[in-house]
Design the sequence.
């Protein structure tokens, strides 16, 4: 009987040892699983934080401080800064400064204003297409070259792309379309941002424009100056106007597209018929 009890005692002992062992093993496995899960979670959190972290950039802008009407480089910089970026350092240099001259030579800058960016471009994928279309990009440096007019030619120091805009209208024609609409169109579509001169057809200046460019429909516009610096405008102008012998761009065939106008040859106000609408079945 004692022998049976001893055997039972031994069995219970080893059973308890086995159970304890499994419990300890289970605890170790649980701890390992917890630690591993926690490490993976921390890794994902770190990766997410890194992905969302703003790209660190350093900016240097090179300008011609004497050109107050040159291309608005700040509009481009504002576009970049709206993305997930952090500009750690920002510096503006004049083209005549020693550092400015050095950068113009180093990066072969032909037009000013321009800028050079350095930093983590792999983190701003939203700007990848912009960078590829507007300049040169290496591993950590971007050089902006798509400078609009007016700009300073670094080879000659001359400002190119200045435009004179004359808005010719018959002030007495209250039904006629607003000639100042052209300012917004030129700015938003072709980057031409210049001070316009509104001229009445009855003024001496207005009469001179009418005679010089054989203008028959008003309101209209006359663009003179370095219009060749605006290739976008040049490519579409034949659809809405003519180029005069002196190079001026005169808005002619496009007048009826703008709205009500005055025909100077008949002295009558004309309201064009609205364009025919295409039915959904056609």
Sequence:
């Amino acid at each position: 009987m004692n022998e049976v009890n001893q055997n039972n005692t031994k069995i219970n002992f080893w059973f308890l040892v086995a159970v304890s062992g499994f419990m300890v093993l289970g605890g170790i496995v649980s701890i390992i699983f917890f630690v591993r899960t926690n490490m993976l979670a921390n890794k994902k959190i770190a990766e997410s934080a890194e992905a969302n972290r703003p790209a660190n950039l350093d900016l240097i802008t090179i300008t011609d401080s004497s050109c107050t009407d040159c291309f608005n480089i700040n509009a481009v910089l504002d576009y970049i800064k709206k993305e997930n970026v952090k500009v750690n350092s920002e510096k503006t240099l004049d083209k005549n400064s020693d550092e400015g001259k050095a950068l113009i030579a180093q990066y072969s800058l032909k037009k000013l204003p321009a800028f050079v960016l350095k930093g983590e471009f792999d983190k701003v994928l939203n700007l990848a297409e912009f960078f590829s279309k507007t300049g040169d990009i290496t591993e950590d440096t971007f050089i902006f070259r798509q400078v609009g007019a007016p700009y300073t030619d670094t080879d000659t120091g001359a400002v190119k792309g200045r435009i004179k805009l004359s808005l010719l209208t018959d002030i007495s024609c209250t039904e006629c379309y607003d000639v100042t609409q052209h300012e917004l169109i030129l700015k938003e579509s072709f980057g031409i941002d210049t001070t316009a001169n509104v001229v009445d057809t009855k003024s001496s200046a207005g009469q001179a424009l009418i005679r010089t460019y054989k203008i028959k429909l008003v309101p209209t516009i006359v663009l003179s100056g370095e219009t060749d610096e605006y290739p976008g405008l040049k490519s579409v102008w034949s659809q809405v106007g003519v180029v005069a012998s002196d190079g001026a761009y005169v808005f002619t065939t496009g007048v009826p597209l703008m709205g009500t106008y005055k025909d100077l040859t008949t002295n009558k106000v004309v309201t064009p018929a609205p364009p025919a609408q295409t039915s959904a079945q056609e």
Notes: The chain has two domains: 55-153, 161-270.
